[in-house]
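Can't paste images in this forum, so I'm doing it all in text. The chain is below; anyone willing to post the predicted structure tokens underneath?
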Amino acid sequence: MGLQAFVLVASRESLPTFSEWDAQAGLPWKSIAATEGVWRFDGRALTVTDDPHRGTERRAPSAEPEPLAAVCEYLRQVPGVDAARAIAFPVLPTE
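Text version of the structure:
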């Protein structure tokens, strides 16, 4: 089982292409084992939902997925980014 993440970035100005951003930032896009719960980033904090159907959130434990945490931290610091959101959830491998 792996972790699938989707990231949305909004800006009032033109931003570089993903390949340019990726080359500059060295973001850790890599395959990792899934963690439990659905992870959300609201532009400020990374939280995990215990029950994705009820949406009960709690503070993310120290075992947050490192690649996702690094991407979220990077997005907090990028000039020109007016809003950033991310969601990540466990997925089964294709067979």
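The mean pLDDT is 80. The helical segments are 18-25, 66-77.
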